[in-house]
Amino acid sequence: MKKIRIKPIQIIGKCPIGITRKDEFIINGMLIEKDIESKLCFLAISQIPIGQGIWQLQSEERFFSHVSCPGCIQNTDNENRIVFLLGHEDKWELCKSISHYLKLTKQYIETADLKEIKNNAIRKQYNGDYKGAAEAMKQLIEEYKKKINEKEKHRLDDK
To answer: What is the dihedral of CA 143, 149, 151, 156, to 10 degrees?
Structure first.
């Protein structure tokens, strides 16, 4: 059974119990393992779907996923919610890269050159070269960042 790493990747508002993006834990079979310093919220962990989330990952039907806690209403007037990345421990770098890529696609439309880098990463992934796929995804992220910075520079120049 695959070990599943879980890490907060986005914190909307402020977590009342103090979970940060540095907190991380692993689901190893039915056991939750965590670094002694990491915080774990019962409400957040209870929202990770066992059937569709953990089972699909452990059975290798999928190797990464995103889930969100429902948000706390504990003494707050603002939304407080955490988005978690779940992924196979042995493919963790690729999981993080894909998650980052998905966030960047909301800021910039994929061009032909970006699609080619992404397609190269997908080919490597399908061929079982997860390390190579992670490296290609990191290259893709850097290219996205350049395009976003260029777009922002042009926007400022037009003012």
So the answer is: -170
pLDDT of residue 77: 67
The whole-chain average pLDDT of the chain stands at 84
- pLDDT of 153 strictly over 80: no
* Residues near 17 by beta carbon (within 8 Å), at least 6 away in sequence: 39, 41, 72
Give 8-27 pLDDT, tens digit per residue: 998 888 887 888 889 998 88
Packing angle of the helix pair 130-157, 112-126 (nearest 10 deg)? 160
| Domain residue spans of the chain | 1-90, 105-159
Residues in the chain: 159
Q: Is 27 helix (H, G, I), strand (E, B) or coil?
A: strand
**Is 133:94 a contact under the CB 8 Å cutoff?**
yes
Q: How far apart (Å, rounded) are the C-alpha atoms in residues 60 and 155?
A: 44
The three-class DSSP label of residue 36 is coil
Dist CA 138 CA 143 (whole Å)? 9
pTM: predicted TM-score of the whole model, two decimal places: 0.80
